[in-house]
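A protein record pairs a chain with a discrete description of its three-dimensional fold. The shape at a given residue is found from the number at the same position. Here is what such a record looks like in full:
>
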Amino acid sequence: MINTIKINLTTEEILTQHIGVEREGLRCDVEGNLATTKHPDVFGGKLLNPYITTDFSESQLEFITPALKNATQVYDFLENLYNIAVLEIGDEYIWPQSMPCTLPDDAQIPIATFCHTEKGAQAYCYRMHLLQKYGGKKQVVSGIHYNFSFNEKIIDELYKASSKDTEYKEFRNDCYLKVARNYLRYRWLIIYLLGGSSVVHKTYEKEVIDRLENEYIDSCSSKGALSYRNGECGYANKNDLYPDYTNITAYVESINNFVIENKIESPKELYAQVRIKAYNNDDLLTSLKEDGINYLEFRSIDINPFDKAGIKKIDLEFLSIFNIFLLLKEESNYKNFQKDSNKNQFTIAQHGFLDTFLLMDGKEVKKSDWAKEILLEIKNINETLNLELNDSIEYQLKKIEDPKKTYAHKIFSKVRENGYINTHLELAKAYKQDAYNNRYLLKGFENLELSTQQIIKESIKRGININVIDPLDNFIRLEQNGHIEYIKQATKTSKDTYISMLIMENKLVTKKVLSDNNINVPKGDEITAVVDIANKKSILNKYQERAVVIKPKSTNFGLGISIFKEPASMEDLLGATEIAFKYDDTILVEEFAKGNEYRFIVIGDKVIGILNRVPANVIGNGNLSIRELVEIKNQDPLRGKGYKTPLEKIYLDENSALFLKQQSLNFDYIPKLNEIVYLRENSNISTGGDSIDYTDDIAPYFKEIAVRAAHSAGANICGVDMMIEDITAHNKNYSIIELNFNPAIHIHHYPYKGKGRNIASAVLDLLEYKIQSC
């Protein structure tokens, strides 16, 4: 088999699997008690959001990644889900451990509630059944469910190389059933390598706590215990159940018999360590018989307390090659492998730190010897197929050689020293702080503009399916319940017409449209590139004794704009025209409007956010030059390039040189202590400016004008740049200097100062993607 794969598939094709992870996590309060609050409304109906929902308890979050191609994509998406969720639960935390936080009695553990539909009623009744049969505390034990299927080309090539005495579907089913059987045989290794639940809080089930040997500050354990979730504390069926994995027909019949014999209520109550998943899991057994196996679900993985996502990327990488090992590994004919595998699971879960003995085909073998033998086989597969996953294999081997390197031992040591609740709360707080510090980032989507990332992030909250069509153009596709929308650069949508964009793109036309609608705009003149120097000077002469703005007719992001608040020389005015002509063949010369500049974001009929954008600046310390101060300010991690961070780096260009010249300064000037030096007049964030939120401070009078201005251009999404002398509107003077058809929204989400405004949410509302309550 391995030679068939090696000859016919590339490394990328072998490792391009379909992988998805479901990660559960309890919400807890600031003291480590189970939260009893409702699931956040922002995520909508629990049965409708495919990414963020609940499991058994209302307090038990469940993060579900879509099926992705590799370990990196899965890890990034899982971390995104964590970051999104943890910042929507107020002052609560996500408990970073499979075994629960401080628990109340079963009666006080809130069961997940659902909307009043047939599916909602079924979901609730099923949870009530589990509560009565297994108890609430056992049901809030949390874990990682790992779902995967191979690249179909692997199965296809193996089938071509086979005797072909069965149909392809049956051959494919047999491949996955073999993997399932082998997973049952070797799952003990995964429990050892990824186990992390080696201690239990004292509020867990009393009958369990009473059996444990050692008591610590607020927890209990027994010698050698590695994974209580996979041992005596975890949820398991009342009786040992052994499905028949010989073929699909036998498997379906065995599950049906368990239901008929009342051992389980339905197939989903089968707590097997590996689940066979169908194309239609709502009618699992019928779909398996008719359509075959879709993918497998591994259920032995504990939450890793030492990773925010609950599982390390290097462990996900190891699972990718472990899957291949399960496919290639030849099986023995030993009939009682399921019973022995169960014993091995409990032996490792309860005594994994000890170099105990396990059962291999009915014979005892030393745990460490068997583990090294398996990892050596996996290493050989890695080398033969050139998979380049040696680091992930060596990482696991170190845990075999030294049990103290396991996650289970590391968390045990911390708990013994600092206490169960304190240890895990400390981790939970650090993960939440990290999520906040990087709240503007969406991992795996860093190649997109930050504004586009906000649309994607908000779409995830609402359970909208996202497809990045063209990352270079920031072009994405959204789909929910058959409703499809295309968005470019976050704010170019189906809700605005092409003519609206053309109106706003052309500054001259913008002024005419606004003026026709009785909206104040600056007075000015137009100069084309064909105008000779004499006529150009003639026009500029009118502005030599006043404040003036010179800008391209069509521009965005503040490019090519020069602003003179004080009268300028003819030389400087001519220089400004040359800068503007680099961006358009026609430029505008306008009176400078008095007041401060504010950016209004209009979505539909409302102003959603208002920013005062402060021009790029530095604050002196009496020692460093402007050039040196800019270099230091640009080191702020919030500043970047290409609209992928909330603030942009400051660049010392010809515009800033000209602006400083008006102040008799240059880049080598050393500002005095606390002296603020502005580096350009225009305040665009895209040219290094700072942003301050004024949404709640600006009078409604100006908000109404902003909406009128957007509507005059026929725009539903518009950035309105307005000069205002008095934001209280006692002095109603204003002037609109620009309309923007593609306004950046991330600057409103993450202002330099003030409250963030969720513009992405308003865009999705405009596109009629509402939060689905049921």
Notes: The longest helix spans residues 168-194.
